[in-house]
Amino acid sequence: MNVQDIVNTVSRKAGLDQATTEKVVGTIFSVLEHEAEGTSASAFFAKIPGADDLAHQYDVMAAAPAGGGFLSSLQGAIGGVLGEKAGALVNGLAALKASGLDLAQIQKAGETLVQQAETAAGPDLTNKVLGSVPSLKSHLGLG
Question: Are 65 and 23 in contact (CB under 8 A)?
């Protein structure tokens, strides 16, 4: 199973268009890439061909567009104070909310993504990676 298979399944089950689904999946993978501890993240991405490319395409730590306003300033301040890991989570959650989805849609997409990742990378490795980012799990309604 590759990343496009995951995007297709999440799109179908969450009722989202392809472009939005790709952004959601890429954003979640980017947060995991920046926040997951140790070698488990690289092993996880190795099991899902294309996942790391999608994470880079939607990199939550890429420079925010100029003139981003208060939220952008707040994200930068939090990231600066708490370090890259917290900044990645804050930026990722802001990107998910900015995608125009409501909480139920984000949670359905996240739940489906996790199910597909467990199929592709195995439940133990997927849970290990997600376990290292517990606040992401709670925002996706998984913990």
Answer: no
Distance CA 18, CA 89 (A): 23
Burial of 92 (0-12, 13-18, 19+ CB in 10 A): buried
Using a 10 angstrom Cβ sphere, with 0-12 exposed, 13-18 middle and 19 or more buried, the burial of residue 15 is exposed
Dump pLDDT digits (tens) for 26-43. Answer: 999 999 999 887 778 899
Give the whole-angstrom CA distance, residue 80 versus residue 42: 25
Q: How far apart are CA 38 and CA 28, in angstroms?
A: 18
Q: Within 13 Å and on the Cβ side, how many CA atoms surround 2?
A: 5
Q: Considering just the CA atoms, what is the radius of gyration of the chain in Å?
A: 14
Which distant-in-sequence residues (6+ apart) come within 8 Å of 143 by Cβ? 134, 137
Residues 6+ apart with CB under 8 A from 7: 18, 21, 22, 25, 54
How many whole angstroms separate alpha carbon 123 and alpha carbon 69?
Answer: 40
Task: Report which of residues 38 and 90 the model is more confident about.
Answer: 90
